[in-house]
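Response to reviewer comment R2.3. The reviewers asked that we include at least one raw input/output pair. We reproduce the pair for Manganese/zinc/iron transport system permease protein here without editing.
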Amino acid sequence: MSYTFWILLTASLVGVSCGIIGVLLILRKLAMLSDAISHTVLLGIISAFLITQSLDGWTMFIGAAIVGLLTTVFVQMLHSAGVQSDAAIGIVFTFLFAIGVILVSMYAGNVHIDVEHSIMGDIAFIPWETVNWFGIEGIPQAVWMLGIVLVIDVILLFLFYKEFKVSTFDPELAAAIGLPVGVLHYLLMGMTSLTAVASFDAVGAILVVAMLIAPGATAYLLTERLSMMFVLSAVFGVLAAFSGYYIAAWLDASIAGMMATMAGVIFLLAFVFSPTHGLIAKRLLQNRIKYEV
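Raw output as returned:
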């Protein structure tokens, strides 16, 4: 497989896994929690390194996943105590991320863990970090991790599709008919944490946030069917990955940064040209109403 193939596959896996999770985050008005998780996992990564003195991917994955889950727990605790959800996210996000930055600056100056790496990622180096698992050689570690997480996400969404649907659109009804709304919330937060952690080291926080929010928000403008929203969000994530890579190669720019930019461009196009929620459609509808009146 070529160098370009592995980069595109890695970015596409990020786009699909983040895209399908992002749909539920958008509908539940929890989009900015993904921003918090994608940054606070830095604390988990550096904590795992300080404990094990190893840069092994799985130890950092476990450390980051734990901190990601703790982020959601702390946010929910503050929100339950009466703090507004956006304020709770902001407090937990800045506090845990700041601790991670301090630990990196104090104890990780001689390794490749740094703030710039955590923000922008190092997707260009993905093809060189290969592992041999299940007797298969030459596949990048990031591809394995993202692929496994994507399979887990898809299985959980398939098994609990109806439960997620009801609890997302009508949590009161879900509680009334006996669905474990709290368990479903933390299950989604766990899926978000695993997805963000698996994507974080490969592509950095900026692209993780972009892929968790922009494809889902774009799909939301184009369809009202939840199943189709998942499909469109995954497609837009892959489209942003491919277009961002080739434009970055043409301009000699940041690959992750350009992919995030293209995710925003795709959203902007839907925001303007959506046949139901776009600016042009709304303006035409307003003019028609005025004409009829």
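The beta strands are 130-133, 136-140. The chain has a mean pLDDT of 84. Further pairs are available on request from the corresponding author.
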